[in-house]
């Protein structure tokens, strides 16, 4: 017998045994052109019906058979299905009969499935069996009756009984040759839903509402409906005599009972633990301790119509399985409690609750056993020790002799795994990428020591906060803690059981003697690079990553390093696991739209990030070894809204996420108020925005919106990203234009307007005229020209003519207003401070002194400017990136010039940054002149009337006046900025008006940032007045606790909702006892988020229309060209020496 024949014989033998097949449902046919015996030759089947073999179906000369007949024939012929049938005749008309066909699926995991695979591989590849199976099955399911009532039928039946038992009923004319279309996605979902509920055939009707919601909204809804932790199932467990080493069910039962009280006590934790925190802690303990398995997400369970055993349907491949394909869920997950709800305390409570547990030999790793040759019989002591350490018995809990404890601690249990040296000792290796090591790479055994130590990895700037939290929450002496960071001095030994070090001890027993090792990310990086470091040779009991959203990038340093570590349990801690999966929960009676402007949520991007955390950090199979499956089996079905995909995704999230619904958190946070502050742009604000729009408009018109000269061409992505960044900066202030470029803009407009006939439409001509008018307005304003020349923000001061002539950069003579930059105004204040006690015999003597000091100032100022310009033009690339906003491109084939924007920010000012109001006497370098006895007849400086009226930036003016008022009200404030030049302008003005502030920015090292944060929190605002923390919003997602602040300002609207939520939760969190006010600054008639939202994920701008909408901002040429303070601010006062 040939191989084909023998294989096919096995296929027939297996498929003829209905006990191995899965009942699916039935189909009703009528008008069959044959006698009963012709279908399958009338052979009886094991279910009491007859086998169906459509090869016996005679062909009809006039018409083809119905397509469903052909589909059933395909499934029968190639071994996907087996069918039986029964003919039913009606009492009313015996000539009319119904042929009911039972469908039995051959499961892909049937005993002997390999014969089916081998047989199909012998057939022609042109049959495309797998693809056609999916197509035919999708069409067939639309007409299958899955109900129990439809599974049976009598030989003779009345029409009445048939219709009553089969409502609704669908009968197919076997000779109707109509073509059946592929069902739509919604129809397929409806069919599988019928299948899951055991329903008869029904007609799908389109629904409106939630079913038609967008992909992103459906993903958000699933995430936001993750159920709260619930320990009620453990309430009936025994809690008598529960100890730290009792079975986990008993410990969970105690937690469940305790969490019904107002406060929960955790061994070793001295802080108040809220019931919701205890429930989260309990769920984390359960997921760490109980082996959990789940169906792979692409499988859904189904019941056959005859109530036989449950089977499983693969939503992706459409295969039918008899047995479940299970995955083991990770021991750990994502602690995703909302920001400010005490995730740090929950983690510390979990560590205390499991203090004595030791990591165990894993069952899912390929282990290698060392061959040990014994020269003598092992002692009873050694055998006992080996048994204790290899079985991970929690010996630390028991009262053992000191010698025994020392013996156990110095000889920890271990196991061996094979590893690739290149992968494990090179932190630059990309995840899952194996080097081409078949020829030259070295492999070996890695010995992993089991321990009771939890390794906590935190961002550098959170290192001090974590160590402070451990001191605050944990009872002294309960846990032994090692804090490791690069900035720690070796001699800094800490106190008690908390020790500080620059590195992890090289001796493994010494390293794992600690209950907690707190490791900064930079210290982890150094430890990974050091092959002598023991952290790669320890099988940690638990690995906790604070700010776990840093794990969503495979290429991030933190993600790569953490992947190299072995741990039994893994937790990513983050209130925002991805940027889009964020919901900022506040009080339920707070009717507040926390994110003032909605932005489009990119669900696919966020799901990909979440998949990276699950596969790369949690190492959850099958996504860890087959990362593409996440996209194929989770993202793609969700995107297509495949039936069951939302349920499986929800089940997956529920299995790894720990978070509460807001209604289940019995903690009342103070009320908060979030408002959008709409400010009318100043003359300079409006002029800058209009100039940007003019550049774009002229470029669009002259390039005719095509080709590489068009700014929105895909080849100009980099320049567009830079342009968008500069437009956003210009909403605060901008000094990046050059007069020559603006004049060029005028010339290009003139040339284009001379050649408008038949070339430009009326809208384009209007754009050219508006652009020219804007450029001329700028060129005719001397204050604007000066600010662009020296890159200074203008300050408008009254009653200061003497200082204007010496330190000023311009004036409005008709109004008696002097114009100053911040350095010039600070020089005036410095002059006043050093000469406040001096008297002069006459005005000329004073002027001479003033001119002498100002001359020295300007000499230094222009020298510094020359140095900055020298640095600026030192390299060719720097020339390309200089402050010019325009690059003029001339087409050889055109009679006019084309415009291409090249906006870049002005050179960053390198000035001293003040962290609080300085002591004038400490900064005094020069000895003051001899103080003369005051004489009323001698000339004095009249400065009481010198006042600061306003600035050329409306946002700066508003912020400064608000912070000054908060200082008087003893309120601590946070100002979040995105661009450092905004922070520089703001801090300069705060120094001028004597408002105290502390800076928290990128250019400050993490240790200083941490110190600044402590200084801000400990600052005595009640006796010293309020203070402001000027903070880069990039640091808002780092879990900082800044409850000392009760007022928050956003300089610009925040595009990403997650970042805004994180920033707000720095202050509005547990421990806050004041109402929190949040203010987001925007310019009137400038929809900043809409403009900046024109960039896609890669930063490409999709159209120019949104960016041109702000061209018509009103320019108040005749009125005040500055943004005025509510009340002028006195700059100098003869009665205040500390000015």
Tally of helical segments: 38
Q: Taking Cα atoms only, what radius of gyration do you get, to the nearest Å?
A: 38 Å
Poorly predicted regions are: 421-442, 584-599, 872-939, 1094-1102, 1134-1139
Average pLDDT value? 79
Distance between the termini: 107 Å
Give the proportion of residues in helices: 25-40%
Q: CATH superfamily of the largest domain, please?
A: P-loop containing nucleotide triphosphate hydrolases
Query: Under the CATH scheme, which architecture of the largest domain would be assigned?
Result: 3-Layer(aba) Sandwich
Global shape: globular
Please provide the count of β strands: 35
Structural class: alpha/beta
Report the portion of residues in β strands.
Answer: 15-25%
> In this structure, how is the largest beta sheet organized?
11 strands, mixed
Q: Domain count, please report it.
A: 4
Quaternary organization: single chain
Q: Identify the CATH class of the largest domain.
A: Alpha Beta
CATH-assigned fold name of the largest domain: Rossmann fold
Pfam family, one: SNF2-rel_dom
InterPro entries: Helicase_ATP-bd, Helicase_C-like, P-loop_NTPase, SNF2-like_sf, SNF2/RAD54-like_C, SNF2_N, SNF2_RAD54_helicase_TF
Domain Helicase ATP-binding: 453-595
Protein name: DNA repair protein RAD5
